[in-house]
Amino acid sequence: MPELPEVETVRRGIEPAIRGKRILSAEVIPDPKGIRTLRRVRSAPAFRKNLTNRIIEKVDRRGKYLLIYLNHDEILIIHLGMSGRLLIRRPSDPPDPHTRIIFHLEKKLELRFADPRKFGEVYLFSPALGETAVNPLDLGPEPFDPEITSAWLLSRLAKSSRPIKAALLDQYLIAGIGNIYSDEILHASRIRPDRNASSITREEADRIVRHTRRILKLAISKRGTTAGDGVYRDSRNQPGSFQNHLQVYAREGEGCYHCRSKIASRTIGGRTAHFCPECQK
DNA sequence: ATTGGGACCTGCTCGC
DNA sequence: TGCGAGCAGGTCCCAA
Q1: Is A271 among the catalytic positions?
Q2: What percent of chain A has pLDDT over 90?
Q3: A231 CA: nearest nucleotide by C1'
Q4: For chain A, which domains are there?
Q5: What's the Å distance between residue A34 CA and nucleotide B10 C1'?
Q6: Residue A133: pLDDT band with limits 50, 70, 90
Q7: How many other CB atoms sit within 10 Å of the CB of residue A269?
């Protein structure tokens, strides 16, 4: 669900509310079927114990991950998966369905993690407990990182035989792009999603770099995309509005705004790709 | 070594 | 109206 623009919107929503606040307790809601959410977080009791009385220092984002920095050098890392939400609530607010964890904060605030499909994950990094070895954030650079240039991208694509869409979805190449924005970026760049990555030219790589930044920036300003099943919501449970600006995603069978041809959709690299057969070559 | 496909969950929509 | 199949924005793991 949430890609970079959605995660960034959530970050901007929760940061001012929770920064500087003390965590009074972390309430992990038991799930008889097992909680994928806590798969890598040791046991729920240890998780609760380590979060109690920590103070939230800042909220960062890396790719699609949220990093909640706590005092004593601990980092709470949250990935929203497909359907995860982080909601700023009051104790008196009605319960949210599928809530997995409630972080009770001082000043009568709650940060609730709700996730119907349970694809979200929560990690707690505690150097004090020797948990520094694995870093799930060993991702590719952020799309806005100046390190990303057309020459840089071209060199990464040159020796790869996968479709360009699969490459853009690779978080270890560039962090933060998901299925919606990869379709939009390739349409704006006039490149078919099934093109072999090694066939991309310098000029095309330049278009990818520029449109990636432009589209992600625009999507952030529109507070993300709430398309299709409308799963995505921000920290106040509000939808985004970038779905009103989509050129190809979720528009199969409709006319391309540029050439009026019918938008096609087919599976590429295990994901549904949407593209204009006329505009994209 | 890469790459492709299935698995992981639940809820919703569509077609019969 | 009811029900099962198919599908959903992500990532991991395994086999080729």
Answers
A1: yes
A2: 81
A3: C9
A4: 4-127 (3.20.190.10), 150-275 (1.10.8.50)
A5: 14
A6: very low
A7: 18
**How far in angstroms lies nucleotide B9's C1' from the CA of residue A114?**
14
Phi first, then psi, for residue A157 (nearest 5°) are -85, -25
Distance in Å, residue A276 CA to nucleotide C8 C1': 22
For A212, phi and psi rounded to 5 degrees?
Answer: -60, -50
In this complex, the answer to whether residue A230 has its CB under 7 A from any atom of chain B, a nucleic strand, is no
Q: Which helix (H) or strand (E) holds A153?
A: helix A150-158
Q: Are A140 and A178 in contact (CB under 8 A)?
A: no
Determine the protein residue whose CA lies at the shortest distance from the C1' of B9: A117
User: Which stretches of A56-204 are assigned E, i.e. beta strand?
Assistant: 56-62, 65-70, 75-79, 85-89, 99-105, 109-114, 121-125
**Does residue A79 sit in helix, strand or coil?**
strand
A4 nearest nt, CA–C1': C9
Token pair of A75, please? Answer: 């980092």
Q: What is the pTM of this model?
A: 0.95
